[in-house]
From TrEMBL:
Highest taxon of source: Bacteria
Described function: Part of the tripartite ATP-independent periplasmic (TRAP) transport system.
One Gene Ontology MF term: transmembrane transporter activity
UniProt protein name: TRAP transporter small permease protein
Record-level GO cellular component terms: plasma membrane
Source species of the chain: Paracoccus sulfuroxidans
Length: 182
């Protein structure tokens, strides 16, 4: 179990580094948006590339930051039944949800998006908008983001199994405490 916990920590460190890095993309997107709005209103200048850069940055923040969100226990959850369960039952629900839904979904998305990304990369396809950007970086975000999310799902699975075995403190309490420190 120690090797699995070491793997879980490594995945967590990777996703924390990526998540904290891409969080800055929101600021970059805001600055681009504000600059684009000012230049459009003040100087009657605008660029489709700047508009597309905004959605590239938001997409990167969302897709690459989703694993960090999962690790921090900040993802959306329907708590109608879950909140009424005991802690052990909640952990079992998390394990079942990860194994039956999260991990298979991540595998399918990566499997299906990878060939599309490769096709966009090979063709050098650009946006249909005048002055638009190349498309492959945006398409690359999908398999990379879902790979990171799948890895974090494996990490969360390891932590929950370790908790059930008594090898680790409650992973959700740890994630909530870490999020409170930010």
């Amino acid at each position: 179990m120690k090797a699995f916990l070491a793997l879980s920590r490594a995945i967590g460190l990777l996703n924390e580094l990526v998540g904290k890095s891409v969080a800055w993309l929101i600021l970059a997107s805001i600055l681009i948006s504000a600059t684009n709005a000012v230049t459009r209103k003040a100087f009657n200048l605008s660029s489709n590339a700047w508009l597309e850069a905004q959605w590239y940055l938001f997409s990167a923040a969302f897709l690459l930051g989703s694993a960090w969100t999962l690790m921090s226990n900040e993802h959306v959850r329907v708590d109608l039944v879950y909140s009424r369960l005991g802690r052990r039952a909640q952990i079992v629900v998390d394990i079942i949800g990860t194994v039956l839904f999260l991990l298979p979904f991540c595998v399918v998305v990566v499997w299906m998006s990878w060939p599309v990304f490769l096709a966009k990369l090979a063709s050098g396809e650009t946006s249909n908008n005048t002055g638009g950007l190349i498309l492959w970086p945006a398409w690359m975000l999908i398999p990379v983001g879902y790979t990171l999310l799948g890895l974090q799902g494996i990490s969360e699975l390891i932590k929950r199994i370790a908790w059930l075995r008594g090898d680790l403190p409650d992973p959700v309490v740890q994630a909530d405490a870490a999020a409170a420190e930010l």
